[in-house]
Amino acid sequence: MPRVDYVLPEGFSSVEQVAAVQRRSFSAMEINFLKENAAAYGYVQRGNVWVYTGGK
User: Looking at the record's lineage, which domain of life comes first (predicted)?
Assistant: First the structure.
């Protein structure tokens, strides 16, 4: 998969804001998982998108 796009809910300006405000939501868990693990699989975060740059 070349990229993972996260569509921000209305009223939010960043994935970090979503994860902070809605800490117990499934969205926050997805965002936190990507932030913690994506690099190990060759993804780099660019705003609300994780782009595959190579790796596993």
Answer: Bacteria
